[in-house]
Specification:
The structure holds 2 protein chains of 2 kinds. By secondary structure, chain A is mainly beta. Chain A is built from no helices and 9 strands. The longest helix of chain B has 77 residues, at 211-287. Classes of the chains: A mainly beta, B alpha/beta.
């Protein structure tokens, strides 16, 4: 498998909106008992979410989305974050001023 | 033959009606676009959640989790009917009311004690007029329903389902298939559908915490999301129905105006002809 296709398919959605949809190299989510990172090739998994920030890294671009409550599912390199509430995403990376 | 002036008065009245229906059509179109977006945004969440819940639920778990209770016989049921607050949307509310009455009759025929919750002024006024008892009435749900409103609606019902005071909860609302197709449908929210035949759980999930804990958190979310979806689809369907109704009203007014204009011209012509005839007649008489 070539490098380019070794990416996660990520969707962060709430009942009201789709917060983020796209590809990423890694994702860090606030699980109910602490942060959890997921890379390509992760085993199928379901877990509950707490409150915090989802961080999606894609190359040198970083997307951050605030989430609260809900649930995470990983299957076949598809990560679905189904949160009760999703905030506005913010991105940093090449071309954007680093906010931090 | 009507007088030209009468016809012209009528034309003015049709014209102002046309202006109103045309405006309402445009308002509905813009509201529809926003409502359609909400439906589109709500769908992925509801679909994935349903998929996950169905994937996790097993008949064994169903016996542990009270929300998954599968009553062998339905004795008491709640019916939630979603209608609109405003009219002028064609047969939209009538269709919903008919669907609800069918469901109520069906439940009554099978000896189920039913309580009836109605959302929306149009449904409430209909059933109040018919003296149908309503357990609750809500008119404060507007064009953009929120998940909180859905939670307020479904939580008390779910609570009573768990207490075994209710055995089933049905929602009657309009499904938003497309702008032209918004049929009324009945959805059973409770008891939650549990597949009896389990396909081997593929892939093998790591569950953290256990399936029971995850389900206990997800089921309320699932109910809220289903209810929210019903409200959102209904709101979009209402705008779609109103747009269609107002468009055909505008078209009818146009058609009517053409007919009236033709009549008006004929009447006016006739008036002139008869006036001319009178003048000529008068002149002839003076000559003699």
């Amino acid at each position: 498998m070539d490098e380019a296709s070794r990416k996660l398919k990520i969707a962060v959605i709430s009942p009201v909106q789709v917060g983020f949809e796209g590809a990423g190299d890694s994702i860090v989510v606030p699980a109910y008992d602490g942060l959890m990172g997921i890379l390509y090739g992760h085993a199928p998994m379901m877990t509950l979410l707490g409150t915090g920030e989802v961080t999606v890294k894609d190359g040198s671009t970083v997307h951050r989305i605030a989430v609260s409550g809900g649930f995470l599912q990983v299957v076949d390199n598809e990560v679905s974050v189904l949160a009760e509430e999703v905030g506005e995403p913010s991105s940093t990376g090449p071309g954007t001023e680093d906010a931090d | 033959m009507a007088k030209a002036r009468d016809i012209s008065r009528r034309m003015r009245s049709v014209q102002s009606t046309r202006k109103i229906t045309r405006t309402m059509e445009m308002v509905a179109t813009s509201k529809l676009r926003r409502a359609q977006n909400r439906v589109r945004e709500a769908r992925p969440f509801a679909e994935r959640l349903t998929g996950v819940v169905e994937n996790l639920v097993t008949p064994e778990l169903a016996e542990l989790e009270p929300v998954l209770r599968q009553p062998d016989r339905i004795r008491r049921a709640a019916v939630v009917l979603v209608t609109s607050n405003r009219g002028l949307c064609g047969a939209f509310n009538v269709n919903l009311i008919r669907k609800a009455r069918e469901l109520l009759a069906e439940l009554q025929a099978s000896d189920v004690e039913t309580e009836f919750h109605v959302i929306g002024k149009k449904g409430i006024s209909y059933f109040r007029f018919r003296n149908v008892e309503m357990a609750s009435r809500r008119i404060d749900i507007g064009d953009s329903p929120s998940p909180e409103e859905a939670r307020e609606l479904i939580d008390p019902l779910a609570e009573r389902f768990v207490q075994e005071e209710l055995d089933a909860v049905y929602v009657v609302h309009a499904e938003f298939r497309s702008v032209m197709s918004t049929p009324p449908i009945t959805r059973r929210l409770l008891p939650v559908y549990v597949p009896q035949e389990r396909p081997t759980r593929e892939p093998y999930y790591i569950l953290d915490p256990s399936a029971e804990v995850i389900l206990a958190r997800l089921l309320p979310l699932h109910l809220v999301s289903s209810m929210y979806r019903a409200l959102v689809e209904n709101a979009a369907a209402e705008q779609g129905a109103r747009r269609t109704a107002m468009k055909s009203a505008t078209d009818n007014a146009d058609e009517f105006l053409t007919t009236l204009r033709r009549q008006f011209n004929r009447a006016r012509q006739q008036e002139i002809t008869s006036q001319l005839a009178e003048i000529i007649g008068g002149a002839e008489a003076l000559k003699g």
